[in-house]
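Much of the work behind modern protein science is quiet bookkeeping, done one molecule at a time. Below is the pair of lines this work produces for a single protein:

***
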Amino acid sequence: MGSLQTKLSLKVSQRQILTPGLVQMVSVLALNKLELKDMINEEMVENPVLDEYVDTVPTIDEIAAREEKRDRESSAALAEEPQTTPEERDPFEEVDFGSFFKEYLDPGYRSNTELESIEKPSFENFLSKRTSLTDHLMWQLGATRVKDDVLAAAELIIGNLNDDGYLPLKDEELLELGAGSLSALDGGMALEKDLGLDGVVSADGEAKVISGPASSQELPAKALFGTDALREAIELVRQMDPIGVGARTLRECLMAQLKDLLRVHDERGGEPDMPELLEDAMVIADNYLPMLQNKLIREIARAMNKSMERVERCVTLIRTLDPKPGLRYNVPDTRLIEPDVAIIKQGDEYVIVMNDDDMPQLRLNPTYKKLLSREGNEKEVRVYVKERYKSALQLIKNIEQRKQTILKVCYAIIGRQREFLDFGIDYLKPMMIKEVAEEIGVHPSTVSRAVASKYAHTPQGVFELRYFFSESVNGPEGGATSLLILKRRVKKLIEDEDPARPLTDEQITRILQSQGIQVTRRTVAKYREDMRIPSTHQRRVKK
């Protein structure tokens, strides 16, 4: 048998390692103006060496000089002012008229704590946020008196609704989640700890406790809720506002809203024929929903043995319903954007102006520089200040590098999209990231980061910089047409078509080919689906 030996060996290898400065440069380049502003403010808080340069704000040294000058002037004024004796003072000036009027002329009640400073509520207490669907439903559940097991099931249902307000989980899955939550309860954990028991959940969703070494007897423990409580909770959630939440399918959602309309009509009254109309609408939503989605109105009327006018009234009523009731509360907040650059035309040329008016202008605080040169300072202090100076300087360089990269990319865009800037979106040309990267001498990933989440104010409006980059298709006379322009043409042809005789994908393909754009029917169908435009059959409106 061989013996193990320990050896020391040196190996030279080359590896690419991203330094902290390079990592920061990459992250700074990907930030838009608002994000960069937040980052700068955070860095100024963390790094005392960083300082914001403002012309109207004096430096620390200037403030100290002004205070010293003010003290000398005040001392000289006091020396020249004649000294007054106590007999010369006017006793009238010593009366506190504020407390006099407060004490004797105020008819209201004054407490002892009235003179104490009252703490006002902070500004954050006046801020509000949009109520989510979960908050709205939980508020209604909190105002409803139900049994504990139904309450637990309703909370679980509300927590598992999707953004549209639908319940994607089946009853079996909800029962498993409810039984699994039992092990997280403090009471269950205390029971296992005190008795030396291990909790398990059986296949039917019932929680059981298996005894430890002392006994092999099974002790049943109640789950959070059972099947009956779950079904009652589902019906409870479906009765909440907005009507339709908790449904699993579009049919259930529409049926719930139609039943609620019928209930409201029975309570408040309305048009005499509304109950019959709602009943017919329920039949359509319950049995003929796929035909309705394909606009087969005549076929629905024939199957129901109803007139076309009657079915069309029912369809009009169904279209007033909300197929996604949860979205009215789960609306995403509007995202604030601010253009990073402005493309301005001066004479016959376009120039780029960086939008950095309210951006903090950084500088190095000279006060801390003295700590590096003073003798007697501890080594740790000098090392800390030196590292802070290096970090601040690196950040300033990275911000400037970001600015220069964005300027180069924007000028490359101007050179390729001059007709778009002059005449509009129909003249947008295809442009690839690799081409711009080769022109300015950087890697394509650098261009991708430079245009990500950044907007430009142009004579044609505000556009994201990524909007100018698109694929190309064979255009007229062998030239290239932007993919965005091709999609716009497909959409325009569909908007101008006869609703009774909509264009097929094959017809749209022939029209585009006649205009010199070489595309296939399959490509047109793909772009139409990308824009979420229905098929020819679904767009047809029968007279």
